[in-house]
Design brief:
Four Helix Bundle (Hemerythrin (Met), subunit A); mainly alpha; about 160 residues; 5 helices
Amino acid sequence: MSGRPELLRLASELRADLASADERALGLSGWTDRLAVGDEAYVPAGLLHHLYTAIEAAARRAVLTFDGSVPGGSDSHARLLEAASVEVAGIRPALFSAASRERLRELLDFRHLYRHGYGIAFDAERIRDLARRATALWPQVRGELEAMARFAESCGHGA
């Protein structure tokens, strides 16, 4: 088989990340019109966390495969989002548009709070608002990730 099998594998992995994120976005859609009470807030908060994590995993795979490395260090998550949002001339298109990057940044900030904010009580209105914004953003980001999967597949076949 000719072509670049690592890019065909990337396309398959990106689609697996999409399927995982689709499930999280679907679950999150049930929280856009209701306030989570007490510990119930951990359900939509977890879905927000997992949705962003699936998106970030896809970005990490694409950047690592095409660019050869991913940012490291204490601000690596933010730098990965930036790197994924920039075209690398002759190598790959930008994975995320500037508009998506700005909206994803809010989810990244929440992911950080979720992972490191031990003992915090989630604000029900903020969680609902984030659920609304995340589910509204998902179709655009999903399209951008699918476009990258198609690009990787095309390159993998040698087109």
